[in-house]
Specification:
Helix content is 27%, strand content 23%. By secondary structure, it is of the alpha/beta class. The protein has five domains: 31 residues, no CATH class; 54 residues, Roll (SH3 type barrels), CATH 2.30.30; 331 residues, Vaccinia Virus protein VP39 (Rossmann fold); 132 residues, no CATH class; 85 residues, no CATH class. Strands 7-28-8-27-26-9-12-14-13-25 form a ten-stranded mixed β-sheet, with helices on both faces. The chain has a six-stranded antiparallel β-sheet with strand order 1-6-2-3-4-5, with no helix packed on it. A four-stranded mixed β-sheet has the order 29-30-31-32, covered by helices on one side.
Amino acid sequence: MAAINDLISQIENAELRERIQKALDKLARQKKFGLVFEEHLPECTPLYDVPVRKGAKVAFKSGPVSEIYEVLNIKDGRAVCLKKGETDAVEADVGDLIPVAEFGEPIYPYLQPLDSVCNAPDSGLWHTLIEAENYHALQLLEYLYAGKVDCIYIDPPYNTGARDWKYNNDYVDGSDQYRHSKWLSMMQKRLEIAKKLLNQEDSVLIVTIDEKEYLHLGCLLEEMFPEARIQMISSVIKPSGSTRDTQFSRVDEYIFFVQIGQAYPQNGYFDMLYDDPENVQESNVVWQGLRRRGSTSWKRQDRPGQFYPIYIDNVSNKLVAVGEAIPLEKDRHEVIPPKGTYCAWPLDPQGRESRWQVSPERLREQLAEGTAYLKAANPLKGSCSISYLKDGDRNRVLQGYFETTGRNEDGSLIIVPKVTPNRRPKTVWVMKSHDASAYGTAFLNKFIGNQKFSFPKSIYAVQDCIRFFTSNKPNALIVDFFAGSGTTLHAVNLLNAEDGGNRRCVLVTNNEVSDAESKELTTRGYHPGDEEWERLGIARYVTWPRTVCSIEGHDINGQPLKGNYLGSDIPMADGFKANAAFFKLGFLDKNSVALGRQFREMLPTLWMKAGAVGRCPVLDGEDIPGFLVFPENKFAVLTDETGFEEFQDELTKYPDIDTAYLITDYEPGYCAMAKALNLKHTYQLYRDYLDNFRINTRRDRA
């Protein structure tokens, strides 16, 4: 490319040079250098909330969602359908069909409230869990939080071939020749949107993976985040090892940290290579020798006022008193010590006269307060060794930075070391707390019982990953769109409890059942969307129950949890001072959307965009007033612009409101109203919901 650009620069005709350069730039965007894979289209989307109508695209509930039919006619609950590319129509009960949208066809999302848990009614902090296929949830999150997310942590499917993830609603197994390209295509489309969510000034993307896809993922991240600093960590998660025939026993996995802008890992208590007690960095005082050493200014004549005797008891060899400095011209042997004592002087190993570091007055003060003590004395040589604290350490002790618990026999203070997070984390992690068996599987079982989720992460491993980049951001916004069992939200709550933070977490997970459960439910005549099917899905069977139990401090049977969180004095039974709301991402029928209904349906979305402060509001009654004010949630909505003056007057009563949504089609009118309100955030909402909120279009990938 560099050589071609050099040749183009030599073209004298400016117009021709520009045309060729544009053509080359276009070609460069289409051609991949490095990582090459088939770009599969995103999954087709089942629209469970949309009715089956004539002309709609549908799939059979019992078949692949990618097998699409067009509804030609409906009569008496029976639909006549024609499959793409075929000429013979088929009939089916309407109840056996589900509307679908292909990539590029606009769909209209909303958030349907399912449940909530409130264990901190006085707190405005609310986490959110969204049950959804994460591609479309990410598109909605882009509208909500573009450029505002501080940390994204994801644990995507590892593509082991074990039929544990789906593409286009079909499980991907080891026999699929496009297994790797499907995985890369799936990841690329999601990371494209994730990148738009991240704060480009200071944020981090954290991705866990194992050896099946780590090389592909690394290349993909390098391509997609060329401006970032990327490091890969090796983390031991199963010390006992995973036995594999003819292979090494795997004990670790990998974590990519994509550091954007000013993001960098904060120091911690451990360097992560080991978590043994001796690996903890303790901050302590440093006891210094009182006799001056060094190549300069160490002699008696350099500081005569610091050459004085220290009187030591002849029998006990303990310090009795500190004498006065003697004149430079006086011989030290002329000094007569008090009865029963001898003189100890600052003499170097060769017997030469040196000097002490401090004056006799200062030494007496420090001996009295315990910041100096006699370490050893030699009556034969007439010298002694005294330890003392220099100004910095002495002041920290006297000002209470270090705790003291009494005195030693020599009179020195007993100073308790202070553990401080000043270790730079290393690139290999061997932490006992990261054991996925003990602190992932067994830990999760305490909350929701056995065998409900395979391979959950250790809560402490996730907490460490997030802590390194948000310990200095107590109000960080954290997103996980492969939420699985909900470990990330649990870890964020624990981190907040430990350091008093107010970090907010948004989780996204599908509600898939396992392959075995899918086969069993299908045999029993159930399909996705049926209540019997949905209640066994990940979001409702695992993620949300764990969220509720961990916040309220009990297991799924209501029994109080036992023990404390590892390395802390936080009882599990106390739960967390936190709140969470549970939503399902649904889709509206564009043909039936009306102003009143669309506003009611989109209210949770507006609540999230305004910061998810306080419990998500719910509208009572059928009528929508001209404006709504939600003081607890710190936002307000003007639905009828003719009532703007009254709306403006009403907002003066609530100074904490910082967000307003103004529904108007008139751009100049919106600008004038926004200027008059002078709030931190104002947004224009068009009456045309379809234009404002449609997703899944090709423009979303621009």
